[in-house]
Every structure is written in C-alpha cells, then in structure tokens.
Design goal:
372 residues, alpha/beta, 2 domains, five-stranded mixed β-sheet, 18 strands, 24% strand
Length: 372
C-alpha cells in the first residue's frame, strides 16, 4: 500500500529539516514525501532545496494550512496520506503501523497519541492529547450529541485513507487557515471506522509559537459552527436530521461562550475573582477579569485541596487579598459534591448570584456572620 507524507510548512525553517528527515526514515518502503511551503519568508525554501529529488516540493503563496493540505493532497498518490506539521517529527514506524490498519471504505483513518517534545527536541514526558484518543464507529454518537470534545490527536497523529480524503478535499480554505484537522477529524466519522494505535508514533513540539496558542476560543467557536454546518449538510444528504442547536448546547466552546457572557452580566469587568475550574477556563476569563486560581500559588494552579478544612483555610487567605467573587466553572462542579462542608460553608456565608449548568458564582462582598 503506497503512502504519502505531506509536510506542510510556513516559516518553521529551523524545524523543517528534522520533519522531512523523519518522513524519509519511515520503515514502510512505499512512502513518498511531499513538502508544501506556504509562502515562507524565513529561508525554508533553502532547506527544501537541500533534499533535492528525495522529496517532491510544492511552493505556493501564503494562504493558510487548509490551502497547504489541498495542494499537498492534489500532488500525492498514496492510498494512505499523513499530513505532518513541519515543527513535529514522525517516529520510523508511523506509516507501517497505519498501513496495517487503514482499509479504504472500512477503516478510513488510524490515529495515535504523540510524545511531547520541547524546542530542542527533548521529550517532556507528557502525552498529547492529555485525554485519550477514541476509535470505532462514532457516527451514531455524533448524530446524537455532536462534538462534545476533540477526541482525536493533532495533525501529525492522523493517517487518512485516500478514499476518505477524496470525499472531503479540497476543503474550505478561508475558514481553516489554521487547524484544518478539526474539519477532517469531525467529518471522518461519517464515513467509516477509526482505528487507534496505542503507542505514540509522532513527536509534538511545544516551542511557544505553536499555531494553537494564537487561537481565541471565539475563533474556535466560529470554526466549530462551520464544522457543524458541514456535518449537518452531509447528514441531510443521507436523509438524517439532527438538532444542531442541541449540539451547540453540549459543545465546550459554546458553553464557554455562554458562560463568559453570563459572567459579564454578573461580575464587573476588571474585578478580582477567585476561579475554581480545574485550570480549564481561567485563561479565557483573564480577558475580562483579574483571576486567581484556586488552589494556587504565584498565579499558578496547584490542584484541589486535601480536604474541606484545607479548602476553607485557603479560601480565607485568597479572599483577604481583595477578591470580589468566587466563580466555580462546570469542569470543577464535582468540588461542590466532594467538598460538602466547604460547599455548605460557601452557601451559608455568601450570596449566590448566578447558578446554572455552566457556572456557580458567589459574591464575596456581601456575607453573613458565618464568615469566621
């Protein structure tokens, strides 16, 4: 089974050679390597030229990552296609492992977790994504619930059947200048089984300039809305009706969007707030409020408290720093069930000014005599 590795690159010249070398070093013998340069200005094209006829190069003006996917796929001929981010690295058996699993019109995709590496290429010990990647036939769950989370790896951890990409590409370019894997990962589950390779087959580089770090959740929400419309259109072609609004109600970014607007109505922007969220939401709230992680030290999240007494003592300390509100986000609602004495103490001592399935907010400025 012939495979194509499409390396897509924009101004990552310092990492590009290692990515290309890893593609060329695959144990699967029938593998072509295509490098798409999306209008780089940093000397990337000199790196590409150095590989000569060992690779196929596609040089184009800058138009974003989806455009690079489309151009690379059009130049490829493999029955399996892997898009490799140019700041990442493939392990030698990635294509071999994928080729054992991908079967056109049945298994449309194989994917795996990635080892995280730092800018120098040293492993950090972390796995990306931190949640497990999922496989199987996922279309029924998709129809019922939409995408409640992104349960697939980033770009360099996915190998696609050409038969699937023939259905999905070329993809919209303006909407996916970054993160085109969201479009492919979502729509793939309409077309067949997804296989999971348990052992990481790629290295995901964290270097401070990763594209994902520049994406606001508002941009992510707009992109997810576009994915939902694409899914809805393809399902309607099959005679399947779905409730897109219920999908939005369950999705992470839409819940975050509603939570932000609800919190803006309840707490004045610029206020100092204590946030209990498992370190999941605070980064977005920082756009409007001065946030304090709980538990936290030096503005860093330290994890949950040991017990109720610890939670109350730490909360008293933070409240004395001038916080006006305590915000409990849905990823940490379990606190209110687990730390029952702490939760009861909060409700006894402070006014609850907002409570729904996204947020519970207490006003720390108005309290009863129960505060000790």
């Amino acid at each position: 089974m012939k495979a194509s590795i499409v390396v897509t690159s924009y101004n990552y010249g310092r990492f590009l050679a290692q990515a290309i070398e890893s593609a060329l070093a695959q144990t699967h013998s029938e593998t072509e390597v295509i490098v798409v340069d999306d209008g780089s200005t940093d000397g990337s094209r000199r790196v590409i030229d150095a590989f000569g006829k060992r690779i196929m190069s596609v040089l184009k003006e800058n138009a974003g990552q989806a455009s690079a996917f489309n151009a690379g796929f059009a130049a490829s001929s493999g029955e399996i296609v892997l898009f490799l981010d140019s700041d990442d690295v493939l392990l030698p058996t990635a294509i071999e492992q994928a080729a054992e699993r991908v079967r056109p019109n049945d298994v449309v995709k194989a994917h795996w977790p990635l080892w995280e590496i730092d800018e120098r290429g040293d492993r950090t010990g972390q796995i990306v994504p931190s949640n497990r990647v999922r496989g199987g036939l996922l279309v029924d769950e998709l129809v019922e619930r939409g995408l409640t989370e992104y349960d697939w790896p980033p770009t360099s951890g996915n190998a696609w059947a050409r038969s699937l990409l023939d259905e999905l590409l070329p993809m919209p370019e303006a909407e996916y200048r970054t993160c085109p894997d969201i479009y492919l990962g979502a729509l793939a589950r309409l077309y067949g089984r997804i296989e999971v390779i348990a052992e990481p087959q790629s290295l995901y580089r964290v270097h401070g300039r990763n594209n994902v770090n520049t994406i606001s959740y508002e941009e992510e929400r707009r992109r997810l809305d576009h994915v939902y419309e694409a899914l809805n259109a393809r399902l309607r072609e099959r005679g399947v009706r779905v409730d897109v609004e219920s999908w939005r109600a369950d999705s992470w970014v839409h819940r975050l969007h509603r939570a932000e607007h609800e919190l803006l109505a309840a707490v004045a922007p610029g206020s100092r707030i204590v946030v209990i969220d498992g370190d999941k939401l605070r980064g977005e709230f920082e756009h409007h409020w001065r946030t304090i992680p709980f538990l936290g030290r030096n503005d860093e999240y330290w994890g949950p408290p040991a017990d109720d007494e610890h939670a109350i003592d730490e909360f008293r300390r933070l409240r004395s720093s001038g916080a006006s509100h305590l915000v409990v986000g849905w990823p940490a609602f379990w606190w209110l069930d687990y730390y029952t004495d702490f939760a009861a103490w909060l409700r006894e001592c402070f006014s609850c000014v907002l409570e729904n399935d996204r947020l519970v907010v207490f006003d720390l400025r108005s309290h009863s005599g129960g505060v000790r």
